[in-house]
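Quick note —
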Amino acid sequence: MPGITAYGAYVPRYRLGPDTSGWNSPGERAVANFDEDSVTMAVAAGADCLSVIDRKSVDALVFASTTPPYAEKQCAAIVATALDLRPDIFTADVTNVLRAGTAALKTALDSVIAGSASRVLVVASDHRQGPPRGETERNSGDGAAAFLVDSEALLAEWEYSYSLTENMLDAWRSSGDPFVRTWEDRFATEEGLERIVGQAVAGFNSRHQMTVTDVDKLVLYAPDARRHSALARALGFRPGQVQDPLFGRLGNTGAAFPFMLLAGSLERAPAGQRHLVVSYGDGSDVMSFRTTGARCQTCGVSGFLDSGRVLESYETYARWRDVWEMDDASRRPQPNPPSVAAMWRETDKNLRLNGARCCACGYVQYPAQRVCVNCRQRDNSQPVRLSDRPATVFTYSMDYIAGAVDTPLVVSVVDFDDGGRLLCMMTDRELDEVAVGMPVEMSFRKLRVVNGVHNYYWKAIPKRV
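Predicted structure written out below.
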C-alpha cells in the first residue's frame, strides 16, 4: 500500500497575539506577510518536504487551497516551476472546499495505487480572511503543509478511507467576496459539523470494523478550539488521543488544517500508531494511516512555530491584508503591468532562480550569462538552482521613500555559500537584526499584482531555524 514518505510545513513568521495593540485576543494566530499568498506558502512547504528528496523523482503535484490567487489559471504549475520540478509531470488544482487537502491526498494515493505516478507531491495552503476582528478572523491562521506520497520508504502507510458528501451552506465565500461568511452558529454546529463528521466517522468505523479504541491519534478539523474539544468528546475520543489543534498558537489554516495537524503528529510518532484524519467541508473525508517509526529530516510544523514573532500593531496586519483603506503618504501612480512575454522568457531566472556554473572553472553567476566573467569561457556552463542554498548578506541599503508596504525597503546583496551573488529585496526582517554577514535563505514571494497579473520573485529572509 502507498503512504506518506516525507512531509513538510510552513508557518509565516509573524503572529497576532496578546501583545499586539488593537488585537484584543488572548491567543496567537499566524499571519502571512504582505508579499505572501497561498502559492508562496505552498512553495515554502513543498521545499521543506523535498529538502532531502531528489526533486526530479516527483511525477505529479496537486495543489489544494480555498484561496488560490488565480480564478482561471493553474496555481500548481507556478508551484511546480518554483520548486524546479520536471516539466513532464502531472499537475492539478483542488479548490473551493475546505476538505480540498484530503481530497488532493486521496487523489495522490489513488494515483500511486493505479500506477499512473510513482511519487506525488501534495501541498495544501490557505490564508482565509474573516470580517475584521470577528470570530473567523480570530480563529483562522495562515500556513501550508505538504506530503510526498510514495509506495516505498514510508513514514506512514495508508490503511483505509471513507468519504461523505452533503451540500451544506454553513461557511462560504462567493466570487469577489474578500471575507468568509458563516451562518447561524447553532445550526452550523449541530446540523453541519457535528452531524456530518459524526456520520462520517461512524461510517468509517462500520465499513472497516474499527472502534474509537483502535485509534492512537485523532487529527480532527474544527473551526475553533471550543467546537474542536466538544466534537472530539462527542465522537468518544479521550483527550490523550486527540492531536493538539494548535488554536492559540497557529489557528485554523483552512484546507491545510488537517495537513498541519497530521504533519505535527508524525514528528514524534512511534512505530505502529494509527492516525485518523477527519476533514470537513460539504461533507467529510476520513483516512487512517499507520506509522512505521521512520523520521523525516525537515523543519516541520514545530520548527516554524517556534520561530515566530508577534506584530506590534493590528494596523500593520490590516495594511498587509487591505482590511480597510489606510491613508498612504507616499501616493504613487499605479505601476505598469509586467510583460507576460518577458515573464515567460525569464522563467528559469525568476521563478526557478537558476544561475549558471562554469564547467571550466566552477564559477557561479546569476543571472546566467553566455560568457564566464572569471575565466572568459563561452557557452560552457550548466544550470544551478540557488533557491535552496544558504546565503549571507554581503551588503544592504534601506530605502525610506520607495513607497513600499513595509517601510523601509531593505535591498540586499547576498552571497551563496557555494558561489553566486544576488541582488534582491529582504522581507520578514526586523531592522535591528539586519547586518552584514547575517545568515539568510531564499523565499518565494509576491512582488505585486497589477491588472490581475501576479508577479512572483525570490526574496531573502532571515534564517528561520
